[in-house]
Amino acid sequence: MMVHFLLRRAAFGLLTLWLISLAVFILFYVATPGDPALMFAGEYATADQVALVRARLGLDQPLHVQYLTYLGGLLRFDFGMSFVNQEEVLSAILRRLPATASLAFGSILIWLLVAIPAGVFSARRAGTAADRLVTTAALAGMSFPTFVVGTLLFYVLFFMLTNAGYPIFPSGGYKPISRDALEWLRHMILPWMTLAVVGTGTYTRIARGSLLETLNQDYVRSARAKGISEGCVMYHHALPPSLTPVVTLIGLDLGGLLGGTIITERIWGINGVGSLAVQAVENGDLPMIMGTVLFAAVFIVVANLCVDIVQALRDPRVRLG
Questions:
Q1: Rounded to an integer, what distance in angstroms lies between the CA atom of residue 240 and that of residue 14?
Q2: What is the CATH classification number for the domain harbouring 285?
Q3: What backbone phi and psi angles, to 5 degrees, belong to 88?
Q4: Membrane-crossing residues (predicted)?
Q5: pTM of the model
Q6: In which domain, by residue range, is 52 found?
């Protein structure tokens, strides 16, 4: 049963990626007004350069041949060549990936470590002043845009502390963990907090709502009626099934973050995948734009596949569904 479930989910993921590749091809090769070769070559390219790009990309071939060539390149992990710096698109993305991965995994870890205990604390005290305080704080965190949180953190924890003679945090940038783990941590704390403020608020409300719903289930009432301790009821019977929507949301958020945390990377000067995508748009580098879009799609599909596997292992009903 588990093998069949995994095969179905993998097939669905491959179908999704194929549809995305088709949509990207149509968007940039077919639906875009004007000559695609001229767009790839640049506004100031000569006629010979445009002809060379057209032949190089196979734009002089029938449309179905162009797509099959494009799809074949993707299957060989060939995302094309940047026309701005003549670098392979995949190499450029992989070079920027460690920064984005550090930002994504660190921020998710922080908001899970804060949000789940906060949600449990709030649900156990539903209707009390403590519950209202937690839910208000969560709502406030959700209400702040990321760029506002990042700007406030930059001003308070970098600018003001540095002017006061306490340069604890750097102004931005990224230091690889392989070179200096302590400097990597110093450079990542504020970007992590920028994302964690919004994420913590969202996950706290989801964890609280799901746990409250689970606590009203009949099997939880039966466990309490049997005299089982409240701690055992909460953490053994109620909490594990209530985390199902949280785990599902992690897959969506992780895929999106790995695809590129554009705003946070720009605020803190982190040269990640998100910054690469913005630069590609600014430079009109269509191969790089297409590559980052497809790369983000792959991460989202893979992250959701991993979530489906985890959910299936946690709950057999998922496999049957």
A1: 30
A2: 1.10.3720.10
A3: -60, 135
A4: 12-31, 99-121, 133-161, 184-203, 246-268, 288-310
A5: 0.81
A6: 33-78
Residues 6+ apart with CB under 8 A from 115: 199, 200, 201, 202, 203, 204, 207
- Report d(CA 278, CA 285) in Å as an integer: 10
3-state secondary structure of 128: coil
Helix, coil or strand: residue 81: strand
Distance CA 279, CA 320 (A): 45
Residue 62, token pair as written in the block: 């029938």
Tokens of 291: 């590559």
- pLDDT digit string, tens, across residues 251-282: 778 877 876 688 888 889 898 888 888 888 88
Distance CA(19)–CA(60), nearest Å, equals 24
Do 173 and 311 sit in the same domain of this protein? Answer: yes
User: pLDDT digit string (tens) for 19-50?
Assistant: 988 888 888 777 666 666 776 666 677 777 77
In sequence order, the 6+-apart residues with CB closer than 8 A to the CB of 86 are none
Q: Which two tokens stand for residue 2?
A: 């588990």
DSSP annotation of 88 reads B
Same domain, 146 and 40: no
Residue 180 lies in a domain: yes
